[in-house]
Design goal:
four-stranded antiparallel beta sheet; ATP binding; 20 helices; six-stranded mixed beta sheet; transmembrane; ABC transporter transmembrane region fold
């Protein structure tokens, strides 16, 4: 797959770099602020980590004292060795004790943060406009709640204590080297600035490609899940090759940005590895020369060699933790994007709808600078039946979703019972409107539990009444265990039409005065279409009904049909009037009739024709 990066002007690239740097800084600040909320435990964990790190080099210092003793005495008795061995052993034991305490404290804090962070996200989601969930897939939100939140555990539980401990250990090591001999200390650290410069250059060059890689990785994960979950449909419609190619393209895109990062890392990382471990080439000859001239003791030289040799390991550990920190910063950015997403504004003096009437007044709406609806007007009295029809992309589903404030209108107003829905409390709005979505969702629970989502305290009689109204009681009773049959999101043994009718029954059980069906009959098979038609006819007696219609035969009895085309009202009227006066509606109706005849001929085993 050929993937290229569009060339930008230097000014645009600089501005983009500044923006990404600002986002990284904000996310890092958010990480540190999160740690500061538990600063007591975090600070103790960091101190314990530092002590553990210092104890790791203590045996080398003890060894240097032992060498001094050997040089001074000319020989050493075994009894004189044991105090040094004991001290070195105790240092190693206490190193692991302090490291263990640091790990326990940091992990207790980390899991406490995970607990509160997931609760904060869960509490945030219901306060977001429903349109947010149109932009974000369930896989993206799941990634934030699981994988990105887990990155916060790695930051608090591992990265932060180790980062603090290793950084301070590096400083302490350099101080010890200068205490032993400033010339050997300079030799030990001389190559490091070269390595640090190489790393800084790489991080700067990789900032953009790193962000693009994480985006491509997220896209690849989403495509992979769709590929796996959609395999039955893919195989049934012989779309294996095209679906596989789509997955391959997403993998290739991810691999492309990985290759870019590897190219950026290759030379600087090699240079850093050489620089981090090259100090032996300076320490050994210089130290030998200084020892031969009596400027340093043999014990000091041995200690500098041992500590200097470990200096590269400390630097490499810091670089590795820096790489982990980049991932954690990216995860925190996604968490903050969700947590700071704009909520539906609180209504200070909420209005109360007076009835179940609905008025759409000069409504215009744009999504991401694309005009969807323009100057739409609809007037629906209580207890009336309104249908919204039109070609794909006409804006009918968008208009229906605006009633539930998936988004707020750009211009105009939508009034429920005389009250602007922007001035109605969100819970009050939900109590007045039931919505059956085109995309079916059933919980992994019993039929009864799925229906009771609409009314948790519903009696069995109320369940059955709603099921009968939606024409699904009979097939429920035919299931094993009836209303106690366990279904899942995929619906188990239920057909698409049966699952959709369960969703309609759930909405009916809520008993809101306004019911909106968004393409809710799209998956109903022809045999059940008459049942749905009867259910809709029964509903109009006591509810205000709005139907976004895919199958026009289900809305022929509507009091008014509004035909949308290109975001504007192209026509309105009854079914009979529109057939006579609207060419667009007539064409839609003829296409619908033709599709029904095609299905009928297919069922009878006849020739497939219009």
């Amino acid at each position: 797959m050929g993937i290229g990066i569009t060339p930008f002007s230097s000014t645009l690239r600089m501005n983009e770099g500044k923006r990404m740097h600002s986002q990284d800084a904000n996310a890092l600040g958010s990480l540190l602020s999160m740690a500061a909320q538990h600063k007591g435990k975090v600070m103790v964990a960091c101190v314990f980590s530092l002590v553990a790190q210092l104890l790791s080099i203590a045996p080398f210092v003890i060894l240097s004292f032992l060498i001094d003793r050997l040089v001074d005495d000319g020989s050493i008795q075994s009894t004189s060795v044991w105090p040094y061995v004991t001290a070195a052993t105790l240092c190693l034991v206490f190193r692991y004790v302090f490291a263990g305490f640091a790990a326990v404290l940091s992990h207790i804090t980390a899991y406490d943060i995970l607990h509160h962070l997931r609760l904060a996200i869960a509490k945030k989601l219901p306060r977001l406009p429903l349109g947010f969930f149109n932009r974000k897939t369930s896989g993206q939100i799941r990634k934030v709640m699981l994988e990105d939140v887990e990155q916060m555990e790695l930051f608090i539980g591992h990265n932060l204590p180790d980062l603090v401990g290793s950084t301070l250990l590096l400083l302490m090591t350099i101080l010890i080297l200068f205490w032993l001999d400033w010339r050997l200390a300079l030799a030990a650290i001389a190559p490091l600035p070269i390595g640090f410069f190489a790393q800084a250059l790489t991080i700067s060059r990789n900032r953009e490609s790193r962000s693009l890689f994480f985006t491509a990785s997220e896209k690849m994960n989403t495509t992979m899940v769709q590929y796996i979950h959609g395999m039955p449909v893919i195989k049934a419609f012989t779309r294996t090759e095209s679906s596989f190619n789509k997955y391959v393209d997403s993998v290739s895109e991810c691999s492309y940005y990985e290759d870019i990062m590897c190219e950026h890392w290759a030379l600087p990382m090699t240079l850093f590895q050489v620089a981090a471990n090259a100090n032996m080439l300076l320490i050994l000859p210089l130290g030998s020369l200084l020892w031969l001239h009596g400027h340093v003791t043999i014990s000091a030289l041995v200690l500098v060699l041992l500590i200097g040799l470990g200096l590269g390991g400390i630097i490499q550990q810091l670089i590795m933790m820096g790489s982990f920190l980049e991932q954690q910063v990216e995860g925190r950015k996604r968490i903050d994007t969700l947590l700071f997403s704009t909520e539906l504004p609180e209504v200070e003096n909420p209005a109360t709808p007076q009835d179940a009437s609905l008025r759409v007044e000069h409504v215009s709406f744009a999504y991401e600078d694309n005009d969807i609806l323009r100057d739409v007007n609809v007037n629906l009295e209580p207890g009336r039946f309104l249908a919204l029809v039109g070609p794909s992309g006409a804006g009918k589903s968008t208009l229906a979703k605006l009633i539930l404030r998936f988004w707020d209108v750009k211009n105009g107003a939508i009034r429920l019972g005389g009250a602007d829905i922007r001035q109605v409390d969100a819970n009050e709005l939900m109590r007045h409107v039931s919505f059956v979505f085109q995309n079916i969702f059933l919980f992994n629970d019993t039929v009864a539990a799925n229906l009771r989502v609409g009314k948790p305290d519903a009696t069995q009689e109320e369940l059955e009444a709603a099921a009968r109204a939606a024409r699904c009681h009979d097939f429920i009773m035919a299931l094993p265990n009836g209303y106690e049959y366990v279904v899942g999101e995929k619906g188990g043994a239920l057909s698409g039409g049966e699952k959709q009718r369960l969703c309609i029954a759930r909405a009916l059980l809520k008993n809101a005065p306004i019911l909106v069906l968004d393409e809710a009959t799209a998956f109903v098979d022809p045999e059940n279409e008459a049942d749905i038609q009867l259910a809709l006819n029964a509903l109009v007696h006591d509810k205000t009904l709005i139907v976004v219609a895919h199958r026009l035969s289900t809305i022929t009895s509507a009091d008014e049909i509004v035909v949308l085309d290109g975001g504007i009202v192209a026509a309105r009227g009854t079914h009979v009037r529109l057939l006579a006066e609207s060419e667009l509606y007539r064409n839609l109706w003829q296409a619908h009739v033709a599709s029904k005849e095609w299905r009928l001929n297919q069922k009878k085993g006849g020739d497939l024709h219009d």
